[in-house]
Protein backbone atom coordinates (compact mmCIF):
# COMPACT_ATOMS: atom_id res chain seq x y z
CA UNK A 1 0.00 0.00 0.00
CA UNK A 2 1.55 3.24 -1.20
CA UNK A 3 1.60 6.15 1.24
CA UNK A 4 3.38 9.49 1.27
CA UNK A 5 6.98 8.97 2.44
CA UNK A 6 6.70 11.91 4.84
CA UNK A 7 3.74 10.33 6.68
CA UNK A 8 5.64 7.16 7.61
CA UNK A 9 6.84 6.69 11.22
CA UNK A 10 10.43 7.65 12.06
CA UNK A 11 11.32 4.00 12.78
CA UNK A 12 10.27 2.89 9.28
CA UNK A 13 13.00 0.88 7.57
CA UNK A 14 14.74 2.49 4.60
CA UNK A 15 16.67 1.20 1.63
CA UNK A 16 18.74 3.68 -0.37
CA UNK A 17 19.78 3.00 -3.94
CA UNK A 18 22.27 5.48 -5.38
CA UNK A 19 22.55 5.86 -9.12
CA UNK A 20 25.87 6.25 -10.87
CA UNK A 21 24.38 9.18 -12.80
CA UNK A 22 21.56 11.67 -12.49
CA UNK A 23 18.17 10.77 -13.89
CA UNK A 24 16.58 13.08 -16.46
CA UNK A 25 13.22 14.73 -15.71
CA UNK A 26 11.58 12.30 -18.14
CA UNK A 27 13.20 9.32 -16.39
CA UNK A 28 12.10 10.63 -12.99
CA UNK A 29 8.51 10.80 -14.23
CA UNK A 30 8.74 7.20 -15.47
CA UNK A 31 10.53 6.01 -12.31
CA UNK A 32 7.88 7.64 -10.13
CA UNK A 33 5.17 5.76 -12.02
CA UNK A 34 7.01 2.44 -11.79
CA UNK A 35 7.73 2.90 -8.08
CA UNK A 36 4.09 3.75 -7.39
CA UNK A 37 2.90 0.61 -9.19
CA UNK A 38 5.47 -1.61 -7.46
CA UNK A 39 4.85 -0.28 -3.95
CA UNK A 40 1.06 -0.33 -4.34
CA UNK A 41 1.27 -4.07 -5.08
CA UNK A 42 4.14 -4.91 -2.67
CA UNK A 43 3.15 -7.57 -0.13
CA UNK A 44 4.64 -9.94 2.43
CA UNK A 45 2.90 -13.32 2.64
CA UNK A 46 -0.19 -11.78 1.05
CA UNK A 47 -0.34 -8.86 3.50
CA UNK A 48 -0.02 -5.28 2.25
CA UNK A 49 3.17 -3.45 3.06
CA UNK A 50 2.74 0.22 3.91
CA UNK A 51 5.57 1.96 2.10
CA UNK A 52 6.56 5.16 0.38
CA UNK A 53 9.47 6.48 -1.63
CA UNK A 54 11.43 9.57 -2.56
CA UNK A 55 13.74 10.32 -5.44
CA UNK A 56 16.35 12.70 -4.04
CA UNK A 57 18.81 14.87 -5.99
CA UNK A 58 17.69 13.11 -9.20
CA UNK A 59 20.08 10.33 -8.13
CA UNK A 60 18.87 8.45 -5.04
CA UNK A 61 15.84 6.18 -4.79
CA UNK A 62 14.80 5.90 -1.15
CA UNK A 63 12.16 3.34 -0.22
CA UNK A 64 10.69 3.30 3.29
CA UNK A 65 8.56 0.61 4.92
CA UNK A 66 6.39 0.94 8.01
CA UNK A 67 7.34 -2.25 9.85
CA UNK A 68 4.86 -1.47 12.64
CA UNK A 69 2.09 -2.56 10.29
CA UNK A 70 3.74 -5.54 8.53
CA UNK A 71 7.37 -6.62 8.42
CA UNK A 72 9.28 -7.21 5.21
CA UNK A 73 10.06 -10.88 4.62
CA UNK A 74 12.77 -12.56 2.59
CA UNK A 75 10.38 -12.91 -0.35
CA UNK A 76 9.22 -9.28 -0.21
CA UNK A 77 12.82 -8.02 0.04
CA UNK A 78 13.75 -10.27 -2.90
CA UNK A 79 10.86 -8.76 -4.87
CA UNK A 80 12.13 -5.24 -4.18
CA UNK A 81 15.68 -6.18 -5.19
CA UNK A 82 14.37 -7.76 -8.40
CA UNK A 83 12.40 -4.56 -9.08
CA UNK A 84 15.52 -2.41 -8.59
CA UNK A 85 17.51 -4.73 -10.87
CA UNK A 86 14.83 -4.25 -13.54
CA UNK A 87 15.19 -0.48 -13.16
CA UNK A 88 18.95 -0.88 -13.65
CA UNK A 89 18.31 -2.65 -16.97
CA UNK A 90 15.55 -0.28 -18.09
CA UNK A 91 17.65 2.85 -17.48
CA UNK A 92 21.15 1.47 -18.03
CA UNK A 93 22.14 2.65 -14.56
CA UNK A 94 23.90 1.10 -11.56
CA UNK A 95 21.79 1.20 -8.38
CA UNK A 96 23.10 -1.77 -6.39
CA UNK A 97 26.87 -1.26 -6.14
CA UNK A 98 27.58 -0.43 -2.51
CA UNK A 99 31.32 0.02 -3.16
CA UNK A 100 30.81 3.52 -4.55
CA UNK A 101 30.63 6.82 -2.71
CA UNK A 102 28.43 9.82 -3.42
CA UNK A 103 29.37 13.19 -2.01
CA UNK A 104 28.76 16.88 -2.59
CA UNK A 105 31.13 19.10 -4.49
CA UNK A 106 29.38 22.42 -4.15
CA UNK A 107 25.89 21.86 -5.52
CA UNK A 108 27.08 18.96 -7.66
CA UNK A 109 26.70 15.34 -6.52
CA UNK A 110 29.87 13.38 -7.29
CA UNK A 111 29.90 9.60 -7.58
CA UNK A 112 33.19 7.74 -7.30
CA UNK A 113 34.36 4.19 -6.76
CA UNK A 114 35.52 3.76 -3.16
CA UNK A 115 39.14 3.35 -4.29
CA UNK A 116 39.01 6.74 -6.04
CA UNK A 117 37.40 8.35 -2.99
CA UNK A 118 40.26 6.99 -0.84
CA UNK A 119 42.78 8.52 -3.28
CA UNK A 120 40.93 11.84 -3.17
CA UNK A 121 41.04 11.77 0.64
CA UNK A 122 44.78 11.01 0.59
CA UNK A 123 45.35 13.92 -1.82
CA UNK A 124 43.14 16.20 0.31
CA UNK A 125 40.66 16.61 -2.56
CA UNK A 126 37.96 15.71 -0.04
CA UNK A 127 38.09 16.60 3.64
CA UNK A 128 36.41 15.84 6.94
CA UNK A 129 33.94 18.63 6.05
CA UNK A 130 32.98 17.14 2.68
CA UNK A 131 29.28 16.26 2.74
CA UNK A 132 28.86 12.54 2.06
CA UNK A 133 25.79 10.37 1.72
CA UNK A 134 25.72 7.64 4.33
CA UNK A 135 23.58 5.04 2.58
CA UNK A 136 23.95 2.69 5.56
CA UNK A 137 21.19 4.45 7.51
CA UNK A 138 18.44 2.01 8.42
CA UNK A 139 15.35 4.07 9.24
CA UNK A 140 13.67 7.39 8.46
CA UNK A 141 14.99 9.08 11.62
CA UNK A 142 18.57 8.18 10.65
CA UNK A 143 17.84 9.18 7.05
CA UNK A 144 16.75 12.64 8.21
CA UNK A 145 19.63 13.14 10.66
CA UNK A 146 22.57 11.07 9.40
CA UNK A 147 22.26 10.56 5.66
CA UNK A 148 23.82 13.84 4.49
CA UNK A 149 26.67 14.45 6.89
CA UNK A 150 30.26 15.69 6.98
CA UNK A 151 32.66 12.83 6.23
CA UNK A 152 34.00 13.16 9.78
CA UNK A 153 30.58 11.98 11.10
CA UNK A 154 30.24 8.98 8.81
CA UNK A 155 31.93 5.66 8.09
CA UNK A 156 33.84 7.61 5.43
CA UNK A 157 35.90 9.21 8.23
CA UNK A 158 38.31 6.26 8.25
CA UNK A 159 39.73 7.53 4.93
CA UNK A 160 40.10 11.22 5.90
CA UNK A 161 43.20 12.54 7.63
Textual characterization of the structure:
This is ABC transporter ATPase. With 161 residues, this protein is of the alpha+beta class. The chain has two domains: 5-91, Alpha-Beta Plaits; 100-159, no CATH class. Helix content is 32%, strand content 25%. It has helices spanning 25-41, 74-91, 114-122, 140-146, and strands spanning 13-18, 43-44, 47-48, 51-56, 60-65, 100-105, 108-113, 131-133, 148-150. The strands form four sheets. Strands 1-5-4 form a three-stranded antiparallel beta sheet, with helices on one face. The protein is globular, with a radius of gyration of 16 Å. The N and C termini lie far apart (46 Å).
Strands, helices and their partners?
Blueprint: E1 13-18, H1 25-41, E2 43-44, E3 47-48, E4 51-56, E5 60-65, H2 74-91, E6 100-105, E7 108-113, H3 114-122, E8 131-133, H4 140-146, E9 148-150
Antiparallel strand pairs: 1-5, 2-3, 4-5, 6-7, 8-9
What is the approximate shape?
A: globular
- Helical fraction equals 25-40%
Distance between the termini: 46 Å
Give, in order, the helices and strands: EHEEEEHEEHEHE
> Which CATH architecture of the largest domain would you pick?
2-Layer Sandwich
Main sheet characteristics: 3 strands, antiparallel
Query: What is the name of the CATH class of the largest domain?
Result: Alpha Beta
CATH level-3 fold name of the largest domain: Alpha-Beta Plaits
Number of DSSP strand runs? 9
Low-confidence stretches: none
Q: What is the rounded Rg?
A: 16 Å
* pLDDT averaged residue by residue: 93
Number of helices: 4
Assess the beta-strand content as a share of residues: 15-25%
Class by alpha and beta content = alpha+beta
Protein name: ABC transporter ATPase
Amino acid sequence: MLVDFDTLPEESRVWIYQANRSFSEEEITELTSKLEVFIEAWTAHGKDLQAGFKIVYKRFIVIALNQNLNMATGCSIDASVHFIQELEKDYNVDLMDKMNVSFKQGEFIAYKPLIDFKKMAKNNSVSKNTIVFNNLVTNIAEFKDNWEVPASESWHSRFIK
